[in-house]
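Entry type: protein chain
Record version: 2
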Amino acid sequence: MSALPVYRWRLAPDGLATRRQLRAMGLRPGGQDVAGELQRPRRRRGPLVAYLYRIDHARPVRPMTPGRWAALARANRARRICPACRRDAGYVIPTTLGTCVPCADTPSVGGS
């Protein structure tokens, strides 16, 4: 069992990148194993951890197809539909409210 090499914040060697850094380069990990761990210390909690991947083993990001664009549009549209009044709110309904703001502000009928 081998342990991952751990690097301190901003001290990772060249050739390794986080997921976000790979994405900014137009790449994705592509199924490769984690090559290292980046740790950023914090004062009163455990360190923030980011996994590092080898850039030379990364693959290009898959392009969005028309079917994927359509599925994404349907999913976002569903997040805007209020379950109480069934109208498009024009914004993503907050999960804390569960309904659009006008429905959340309306007092429930028959409440105690």
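Comment: The radius of gyration is 22 Å.
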